[in-house]
Amino acid sequence: MKINGRRTSVRLERGFWDALDDMARRRGLDIAILVSEVDQVRGDRPLVRALRVASVSYFREFLNRATDVGAARAVQSEEWADLLEETTQTVFVGG
Fold first, then answer.
1. What pLDDT does residue 84 have?
2. Per-block average pLDDT, block size 10, for the chain (95 residues)?
3. What percent helix, strand, coil does the chain show, rounded to 5?
4. 52 Cβ partners below 8 Å, 6+ apart?
5. ∠ CA 18-26-68, rounded to 5°
């Protein structure tokens, strides 16, 4: 995988790859671009750890916001898409 212009390999458990793939798909990104974004904001953390934290944080925030919005409203596709976008921005800007 090429991340921020350099070739690297990343070993993660299958569940984390599935979560990252889902995150990337929801944002319309290639997974390498998503991994590059995490790499850019990870600071001194190892990349693998930052990817695990990003995936767990993303879905925790997503569920918290979905609960706040309410089940009836969250199911509506347009609001659901907006919620996903806001959640992604929160994780990467605030994380």
1. 58
2. 83 91 91 92 92 90 72 54 56 46
3. 75, 5, 20
4. 12, 16
5. 100
User: Which amino acid appears at position 24 of this protein?
Assistant: A
Quick check: pTM over 0.70? no
Alpha carbon distance 23, 43 (integer Å):
21
| C-beta of residue 66 within 8 angstroms of C-beta of residue 83 | yes
**Residue 84: both structure tokens together:** 């996903």
Q: Which of 15, 19, 21, 26 is nearest to 1 (CA)?
A: 21
Encoded tokens for 43: 């600071």
Alpha-carbon gap, residue 86 to 12, rounded angstroms: 26
How far apart (Å, rounded) are the C-alpha atoms in residues 43 and 27? 23
pLDDT of residue 93: 43
Helix spans in the chain (H): 14-27, 31-41, 47-69, 71-74, 77-94
